[in-house]
Amino acid sequence: MTAEQLIVTLDGPAGVGKTTLARQVAQRLGLAWLDTGAMFRSLALRLGPGADTLPENILRASCAQWQFSLSGVGADTVLSCNGTPIGNEIRTEGVALLASRIATLPVVRQCLLQAQQEMGRRFPLVAEGRDMGTVVFPTARFKFFLDASPEVRARRRLHDLASRGEQADLQTLAEQIRQRDELDRNRPVAPLRPAPDALLLDTSELDIPGVLQRLLEHIRAKGGPMPLP
């Protein structure tokens, strides 16, 4: 089985559990975990507010200054930018919204597309994002698209923030999620949508263990690797 055949893609909007599930799938299969949303967030944080209004040539030059790398497997996978591990500094709603804005720009997507595909050539991996199965890894054997209602996703986000000691308003979170959905689903380049050959899963009424089981069963049924205990 080649590295390309061992690529698993998890796409879907914010708040459906992609990060947790991708990390756990990677852990169970012994693969690297690629959080492409973290790449967009990291770039947004480094480029700063107003990045989405920069002239294309300046934005291209700015993006070229930041190089991403991957090491480790499963929960121990580390994504770094210019050699520095990416941490929780990117996990704010402001950074997330700016990331969705710069993700509409072809020059930014092309820059990160090349970095993501290069990592896919080097590592068997589980890739999570918005267009992993449609654009970045269209020939991946194992593709999934996860979804849930904005209200459910907002409650999950509220819980995540509370677990880190951060406060937020549920209605505000739900509105921010709708704004990000609008940007992601209607952008002219690589809009958020399921790949034709992806398995669609609505996670609104499923917990993480339930979704994880469905993912691993589907991978195994299609001839994928046996999950580790």
Question: How would you characterize the overall build of this protein?
Answer:
The structure is a single chain. This protein is an alpha/beta fold and 229 residues long. It has one domain: P-loop containing nucleotide triphosphate hydrolases (Rossmann fold, 3-Layer(aba) Sandwich), CATH 3.40.50.300. A 5-stranded parallel sheet has the order 2-6-1-7-8. Strands 3-4-5 form a 3-stranded antiparallel sheet, covered by helices on one side. A hairpin with a 6-residue loop joins strand 3 and strand 4. Helix 4 packs parallel to helix 8. The radius of gyration is 17 Å and the shape is globular. It starts with 7 loop residues before the first strand and ends in an 8-residue tail after the last helix. The relative contact order is 0.22.
Q: How many separate structural domains?
A: 1
Biggest sheet overview: 5 strands, parallel
Provide the CATH topology.
Rossmann fold
Proportion of residues in β-strands? 5-15%
At the fourth CATH level, what is the homologous superfamily?
P-loop containing nucleotide triphosphate hydrolases
Shape: globular
How is the largest sheet built, in terms of strand order?
A: 2-6-1-7-8
Flag low-confidence runs: none
The counted number of beta strands is: 8
Topology as a string of helices (H) and strands (E): EHEHHEEEHHEHEHHEH
Structural class, from secondary structure content?
alpha/beta
Output mean pLDDT.
92
CATH class: Alpha Beta
Give the terminus-to-terminus CA distance.
21 Å
